[in-house]
Amino acid sequence: MRSSTYVIIILLTALILPLEAVGGDREGVSEALASIQGTWPDALFSIDVSGADDGQAVLNHRLEIAYEAELPGYLAYLIVSSHGDMTLYRTSTRTAKTKGTENYVVKPPLGSGQIIVLFANAPWDSFFPGGGTVRELSADRDSATALAQQLAQLESAHVLVSNRRYQLNTAAATGGTEYTTRGIVMQVQQAQREPKASGGAARIPSRIEFEFNSDRLTGQGKLDLDTFGEALVTGLRDAKVALEGHTDSVGTDEYNQDLSERRARVARQYLLESFGIPDSRLTAVGMGKSDPIASNEDEVGRSHNRRVDFIFSTAVPHSTAAGH
Questions:
Q1: Distance CA 159, CA 156 (A)
Q2: Cα separation of 111 and 83, whole Å?
Q3: Mean of pLDDT values over 277-284
């Protein structure tokens, strides 16, 4: 059996990865991480993930990552979110093991990501220069490339690694978001199949939550936008979308016009940055309080009017203006 006392030797410059997680380059991150190769086939390493139904996981629910190998080693795993954010975890144990189970509570954002489980014949200390068991990495290609290069350099230090990948799609619990990604895709496809009735576009009103009297998204607002973002990078990759911001009737025309424009732009920017959607696919416009879909006489109706409409089409409507 190979010794598990090898020290992971990595140049310090290769260890300096940005610690602040930002969204945006999910494609670049995925492509860079695809280069990770296993170098320890003799370990006969395998995993079993429970708590997800065919890769479908529920936000805030627990996953169990069970692992087993022929030879003892040390476990780490990388969670890659739908935004491309990467979080590296390692087990708290400091002894080599042939099997065990790690628990992971599913976190935002919603959408499709992956778990890359790593099993080495030496501890992962050098990948955690600040100590601890969790390390946040940035959501960009350079950070993913640096991590893949660190793993590739291990073999020269006689450190061998096996890896297994698990595709994970994170969804909200039933009722946790206004729409599902699948539901959005189906609505748009239905409109495309019936161009005479829909005019070639599908309008989906969504009550994206913002903080009171503000254009700052709430946590729930981000989750609802995630369902649209995931649709735009999966089943609706060719669609263009106009985002229309709307308000209720409380306040002046000028105030509501400005607020609706700002909220539409913020929603657009969130989708651009979080999902790496090309700028040309999304436009934003504010409609103020000019187009209510419910009565403004009570709070329930006003809450429906405070919304962002998503207008999916094969061409962006000429009446909208780019939100920059």
A1: 7
A2: 8
A3: 96
Evaluate whether 115 touches 109 at the Cβ level (below 8 Å). no
In this structure, are 285 and 238 located in the same domain?
yes
Rounded to a whole number of angstroms, the CA Rg of the chain reads 23
How confident is the model over 115-136, as pLDDT tens digits? 999 999 999 999 999 889 999 9
Which CATH number goes with the domain that contains 222? 3.30.1330.60
Closest-CA residue to 10 (of 129, 137, 168, 181): 129
Cα–Cα dist 259/247, whole Å = 8
The pair of three-digit structure tokens given for residue 33, joined into one six-digit string: 């991480």
The pTM of the full predicted model, rounded to 2 decimals, is 0.85
| Number of domains into which the chain is organized | 2
Its domain, for residue 148, covers: 12-171
Quote the Cα angle for 102-106-111, to 5°: 130
